[in-house]
Specification:
With 602 residues, the protein is of the alpha+beta class. It folds into 2 domains: 3-200, putative glycoside hydrolase family protein from bacillus halodurans (Beta-galactosidase, Chain A, domain 5); 216-598, Glycosyltransferase (Alpha/alpha barrel). It has 14 helices and 28 strands. The strands form 7 sheets. The chain has a 15-stranded antiparallel sheet that branches. Strands 26-27-28 form a 3-stranded antiparallel sheet. Strands 16-17 form a two-stranded antiparallel ribbon. Helix 4 runs antiparallel to helix 5 and helix 4 packs parallel to helix 6.
């Protein structure tokens, strides 16, 4: 087969070359060259059956592409959907590959349809299944309309009219597509003890999936000037929700590096309370209350019990044990090792998550989510525990693997927890002692202003006793801790913009020793969106819009963002697509629109 039907060389892969498809249970990443190089089945956190993204073609992929050299590639999502269309032009014609994962109504399925647009194009397909993150080669048998493959508990069936044959431990086939032709493929996972599922109608699934996505995205309230950008990011966030439980994954990938060739490679296929709380706020701000209600139900189940056992993150069904291990048979993205599954950060103490959870539930209450007595009881239990422990050091928002410290942001978010609890009693009539809650909030506020502020530098600092900056300090005005025009806040924002940036994009913090890890990382896109918001609040609207438009330009050709960006190399870094980054985009767009309309967003 031609070179264009195989995944690109590992050294040439770029994170921005991938697009996302999802069915609300798991997700696949598709390259510009027609290769699915990452797919975990049946859930986001299951073992991957295609893992070429973190290795080589031998670790699993499914490619459909022209046999001849492709002269031009263009791709897009159908507006308001996650139905991907990739057009490839050769010397003899043009084809369109439509990729999607139908909203899960049964078994997880990837649908791919090749459509002839112009002329005639000789096509090829290569299916190299490798279960358990590229390690297990399945037993494959031919069927009347495709193949079946099984390895241990995992089995898949591929249905297609294209003749297939086995060669060198993979399956391949060739076919010709002329203008007007539509050639379907559907790959379905099932448990090996079950009977193989029947073939789905791939062509009908395209129309059905498009209609289902449009029904959802058309409910999104007007985003003003950047409405289409907001919708695109909200569709991405929707795709990261594990619908059976309501959990929201931080990203559908593991071990995409924060530094090419480095070791800062983490598994993000779990639900962080912080990430999901901010996702919830982005969704509720745009009228998506059903997702907010589902998340609240997940939260109540996940953290039920002793508030002292609150974790910063959980599995998709609320699992608490997420042991971290290294997969030594995968060489990693661009040689970035180790490849990790699981995440030991689950055992960290991060006091800020109490504030994020309280704020998310407060925001949902403010936009009309139905009250829930159990939810309020949970919130009271959380602030009761926090009252006894907010003075302790922790690992902080960025999950430092060095010693615990008294991080300023953690104390600020403890203030948020008590402030929002007091507001719930005062404004919504919920049971509680508002005076006491407000008194604790005031105590924390005074503490932060005394210990988290460096008089000599004239700014807030990363942690007590430090003189370093931290991008999380940008949240002080965004969560209402102090107004943006407070001289201490304004000085902090301007210092971060001046001293904690790389080519104008914001770093989380300086990595030289404070986090207990080796190596460096890229600029953090969420923090850059925070700077957009704070600049807007400071009245520097033109500067805020200029930075926002630059961040929009960093998205790939289908509107997706990773966690980080390297401005020197012009490359995305970190897990992809990253919920944090798309949350930041939505909030920044709404902030700019609100400032334009009435001068404030809160």
């Amino acid at each position: 087969m031609g070179i264009d039907t195989e995944p690109s060389d590992a050294a040439e892969r770029r994170i921005e070359d991938y697009a996302l498809i999802s069915d609300g249970h798991t997700a696949a990443l598709v390259t510009r060259t027609g290769a699915i190089e990452w797919l975990c089945l049946p859930r986001f956190d299951s073992g991957a059956c295609f893992a070429a993204m973190l290795g080589t073609e031998e670790h699993g992929h499914w490619t459909i592409a022209p046999e001849a050299t492709v002269r031009e590639v263009t791709r897009r999502y159908r507006p308001g959907t996650l139905v991907l269309e990739t057009e490839m032009t050769t010397d003899t014609g043009c084809v369109r590959i439509v990729d999607l994962m139908p909203h899960r109504h049964g078994h997880p399925t990837v649908v791919r349809v090749v459509e002839g647009i112009d002329g005639a194009v000789e096509m090829g397909t290569v299916l190299r299944l490798r279960f358990d993150y590229g390690r297990s080669v399945p037993w494959v048998r031919g069927t009347d309309d495709g193949i079946r493959a099984v390895a241990g508990p995992d089995a898949v069936v591929l249905h297609t009219p294209v003749p297939l044959h086995g060669e060198n431990m993979h399956t391949e086939g060739t076919f010709r597509v002329e203008a007007g032709d539509r050639v379907p493929f559907s790959l379905t996972w099932y448990h090996a003890t079950e009977d193989p599922p029947a073939a789905c109608d791939a062509l009908e699934q395209i129309d059905r999936s498009t209609a289902e996505w449009l029904e959802w995205s058309r409910r999104i309230t007007d985003g003003g000037r950047w409405h289409d950008d907001v919708v695109s990011s909200l569709v991405t966030l929707k795709a990261l929700i594990y619908e059976p439980s309501g959990a929201i994954v931080a990203a559908p990938t593991t071990s995409l590096p924060e530094e090419l060739g480095g070791s800062r490679n983490w598994d993000y296929r779990y639900s962080w309370l912080r990430d999901t709380s901010l996702t919830l706020q982005a969704l509720t701000s745009s009228g998506c209350l059903a997702e907010a209600t589902a998340w609240r139900s997940w939260l109540l189940r996940a953290i039920a019990g002793d508030p002292s056992q609150l974790q910063i993150m959980y599995g998709l069904d609320g699992e608490r044990r997420l042991p971290e291990m290294e997969i030594d048979w995968l060489p990693g993205f661009a040689g970035s090792r180790p490849v990790r599954i699981g995440n030991d950060a689950a055992g960290q103490l991060q006091l800020d998550v109490y504030g994020e959870v309280m704020d998310a539930l407060h925001q949902a209450r403010e936009v009309g989510m139905e009250p829930d007595a159990d939810a309020w009881a949970l919130q009271l239990a959380l602030v009761g525990y926090l009252e006894e422990h907010w003075r302790e050091p922790d690992e902080g928002i960025w999950e430092m693997r060095g010693p615990r410290r008294h991080f300023t942001h953690s104390k600020v978010m403890a203030w948020v927890a008590f402030d929002r609890a007091a507001r719930a009693v005062e404004a919504h009539g919920l049971d509680g002692d508002a005076d006491h809650l407000r008194a604790v909030a005031d105590e924390i506020h005074d503490h932060v202003c005394r210990t988290g502020f460096d008089e000599e530098r004239g700014t807030f600092v990363q942690y007590e006793g430090s003189t370093e900056l931290d991008a999380s300090l940008l949240l002080l005005p965004l969560v209402g801790f102090l107004p943006a025009d407070d001289p201490r806040v304004a000085a902090t924002v301007h210092a971060i913009a001046q001293d904690l940036t790389r080519d104008g994009l914001v770093l989380r913090y300086r990595t030289d020793g404070v986090d207990g890890l080796e190596g460096d990382e890229g600029t953090f896109l969420l923090c850059s969106f925070w700077l957009v918001e704070t600049l807007a609040l400071l009245g520097e609207r033109d500067r805020a819009i200029e930075l926002f438009e630059r961040l929009l330009d960093l998205r790939n050709d289908v509107g997706l963002l990773s966690e980080e960006y390297d401005p020197a190399a012009g490359r995305m870094l970190g897990n992809f697509p990253q919920a944090f980054s798309h949350i930041g985009l939505v909030h920044a767009a709404l902030r700019l629109e609100a400032r334009s309309a009435d001068g404030d967003a809160r």
